[in-house]
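User: I'm designing a mutation panel for Camphor resistance protein CrcB and want to avoid disrupting the core. Could you give me a predicted structure to guide residue selection? Please restate the sequence first so the numbering is unambiguous.

Assistant: Good idea. Sequence first, for numbering, then the predicted structure tokens:
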Amino acid sequence: MRSFILATVFVLGGTVAAMADDIIKVSTDKSVSEALDAFEDAVGNAGATVFARIDHAAGAEKVGLTIPANQVLIFGNPAMGTPAMQIDPRAGLFLPLKVQAYEDENGQVWLAYEDPKETMDDLDGVDASPVIEKMRGALAKLTSIAAE
């Protein structure tokens, strides 16, 4: 039994570390709201569509709880998403894309997103498609612009 518990701890520990490596973070001196406003502008200027903006801190307040500023923007571009879904329709589970702006425990604001190559690595051939590199490049460029 002890071996099973140790094996489980090692497996889960590795999974948590791997998940953390899948998240890309870009620091900014802007507030959460300013950073996500800038990101939303960059997304619009790139020709993508914004589907929703979620304010997690406002949601927490509605139930009498508090968290530091934390917002998510959900957006996409069919020119990138459709080719991924043509390869494997399950790519639609991970699309549209999301970027989070949040304030950490030290007051530092971050723009964060999950690496689409890692997100879709279990799908049939999507992670090897050139469209994934386009998504990665777009996310890196847009978050960099927003962070400035």
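For picking mutation sites, this is relevant: Residues 1-19 have pLDDT under 50 and may be disordered. The domain at 24-147 is CATH 3.30.310.70 (TATA-Binding Protein).
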